[in-house]
Amino acid sequence: MLKRSVKDVALAGQRVLMRADFNVPIKDGVITDATRITASLPTIRHILASGARLVLASHLGRPKEGKFDAAASMAPVALELSKQLGREVKLLADPRTDAALEMVAALPAGGVVLAENVRFFAGESANDDALGAAWARLADIFVNDAFGSSHRAHASVVGAAKHIPAVAGLLVEKELAAFDAVLGNPKRPFVAVLGGAKVSDKIKVIENLLERVDAIIIGGGMAYTFLAAKGVAVGSSLLEKDRIEFARGLLDKAAAKGVRVLLPQDHVIADRFAADAARQVVTGAIPDGWMGLDIGPASAAEFAACVRSAGTALWNGPMGVFEMEPFAAGTGALAQAMADCQGITVVGGGDSAAAVNHFHLAERMTHVSTGGGASLELLEGVDLPGVAALMDRG
User: Fold this and answer.
1) Band (392; pLDDT cuts 50, 70, 90)
2) Catalytic residue among 36, 152, 202, 243
3) Could you tell me if 131 and 15 lie in one domain?
């Protein structure tokens, strides 16, 4: 449990450093999806309304660490924040300089600046203590509202929290509460839907969830390794041969625990990985030279019925290549079932969040996570460094 959130501390007259997740998609200098910025606005507005001076920090993209890269500059984010907040948000060039200190000191109560991309500064990913101290020097209180970065022990996430009091932002608090409801004391039946490409990406998640769920639905590319473990021919579908025995062991473990495992029985298959490929629906074995790119309609109906009846439904990973319209129906059916479910519905970040947004159903979920990697590690049962730092210093 967190010691304190941003709601529990006096902010008036304080300098606040808030680590946010503004890693938004940008094309030709224009933000194409501002969801992550919007998600941080409640915490930002709370801090500003409290009369604090606010320094925002985030990463953007994957620039070479320690070097300025104009393509990864936070300038477009500063413009978007200025529009959203109705006040100018200037860029702070380098947190390590006296000029940065002076810039923060000159802010009025309720004023805000945005630091340049945290990855422009050497030592960020190594959690360099001097860099963490430089960030902390700008503030009296540290607020972590970057759930999507909380699985990374970086200087702007963990390092700064070592030097000044640290608390959770409203978004981080909301994310942790949602996953605690799922993993701590879920309403029954508890159904987990796992998809995506590879079994190897979800090994620890499956192992952790087997101790908690009543049923697991497995779709996407990872399903073919489980089908192969049951002796079903999968054609040219994505297959991790070195994980077949592991998948067989998980199926045996699930059976021993009384956990129901649902695998696709029919498939939308194609002769190549392309939207205009020849395709057909088959039940059972997939012919040689064909690959499964989506669950079939019968599987979609079975999976959807299981999800709709859940007391708690957790979804991490699409059922097929939903980005291609001919192979989107299975994922769409699961998204609709999650929306129709009367229980608690939690969607992991990454591709799962992209899917519910794609089908315009995000608003009908109990919670859609903003952090793919962070949510995956929580589902694995791993402590997040960014959260642990708050527990140590809150």
Assistant:
1) low
2) 36
3) yes
